[in-house]
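As noted in the main text, all predictions were made from sequence alone. Below is one such record, for non-reducing end alpha-L-arabinofuranosidase.
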Amino acid sequence: MGFKETFFSAFCYLLLFSVSCKCLAAELDMVQTAGLEVDASWNLSRKIPDTLFGLFFEEINHAGAGGIWAELVSNRGFEAGGPHTPSNIDPWSIIGDESSIYVTTDCSSCFSQNIVALRMEILCDNCPASGVGIYNPGFWGMNIEEGKAYNLVMYIRSLESVELTASLTCSDGLQNLASVSVQGIDLSNWTKIELQLLPEGTCRTSRLELTSMRKGIIWFDQVSLMPSDTYKGHGFRKELLYMLLELRPQFLRFPGISHHDEVDTTIIEPFVKDVLDSLEFARGSAESTWGSVRAAMGHPERFPLKYVAIGNEDCEKEFYRGNYLKFYDAIHKAYPDIQMISNCDGSSRPLAHPADLYDFHVYTSAANLFIMKNKFDRTSRIGPKVFVSEYAVNEQRDAGKGSLLASLAEAAFLTGLEKNSDVVQMASYAPLFVNDNDRTWNPDAIVFNSWQQYGTPSYWMQTYFRESSGSIVNFGPNAVNFTISSRGLQAGVNTAKSTVTVLTSGNLLDENSFSEPNKVVPVKSELPDASEEMEAVLAPYSFTSFDLALDQYSKLVAEM
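Prediction:
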């Protein structure tokens, strides 16, 4: 840990602790002034866990497919309806009429685990000049941009000579942005075709067309269209990945392998084996049975999987506790270093079973979450640590689609977690993403469509916690004149490099949007009066961070 990190961890813990006590009292007394005394002496410092703030990703609101995963084709394997045929091919549609084309599905794919393929029969002898075929609009329209390249990969089989055209068009099919042909290739066996499309125009609601004018039958499977400029070539939308990286997360939580809380403990063994096999896939050596599968997929390195949660919000279900022990014992025996997370809340009473951490979820009103900043003040410091894996203000009248009010209550809650970081080890907001076309859950941290994205105030609130800083929430309607007195600093305050950052807006329920993505965002400015004794004003309903630069640190940076 470097000098800056060590110092600010100590300084900010004390600042948050004092403010969370005194500001509330000031509000209750209707006093619009407040004082804060900070002792930043080394002997009073306590390191905040490196793992305290991270991310929770789940496939909700089209967060993955149609979201962070840059795949433009929806239902690329024609198996939206499962492995049975005829299968649901939505949103694929037909170009042409019943006299010119017939489309169905069968089980003839070359992929043994995904056996459904699409069968396209061209019936017309004199097909239209534009051809007949199928098209895919992606996830509410594909964003196709001039100057970019798009990689088309698909598997094709046909017993006849094929003349196939792959095109990118606008949603009405009238504006052709790019086309490429497939012909003169022996396709009697399943063949992987790779093409690149270079559009000569931009359309935010485009579609992929596969058309032909030649009579015959063509089978398709695993049709993929990807922009060539994904994040590090890994297939993720760059602009969404960059927003995640801006939060500097220290862990990633994601839904796991098996969820069998209602299965009788007497028949749980097969599910335990599934979990152990999956853990071997992630953690096993490249020579192990399942680790070799991972290596064959191009990732010989083991994944740094360090935690396993057993169940999800299942503590009160009939078979959970019996199932928990079977999973716990099996995983602990195979991977003793993996930390196990229980679904049962241990904040007010000890757990009745072994665990390294326990999972705590809270979705509530802004007022309730603000009060819960003190939730873990009296939690026992002996035994499992706390993982607040899902938190958010979600009451509609407070949160809307992501309001300033919600973010302020969440900020206060997080300062309480920092204050109690000797027992709270990890925390993550939920949900992380929402495609604006599929708002299954509101609010969310990051909103996007096929070509735009913005952070809600709750996203921007989390940027304050990327590193320890002196952050203060004013949850009241009045401005507060604030006096800060500091002692025990290891160097003098560098006024020129000190800053203040404020998250606020003109209305408590203000939200960001595609038309106003920066309506509620942090505003950073100089702090000309920064010193060991300083005056400041906390705006009504605001989240403020005071970042004091130290002369000694500034000197070290200048010499590097």
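The first strand starts at residue 33 and ends at 39. Residues 1-29 have pLDDT under 50 and may be disordered. These features were considered when defining construct boundaries for the mutagenesis experiments described in Section 2.9.
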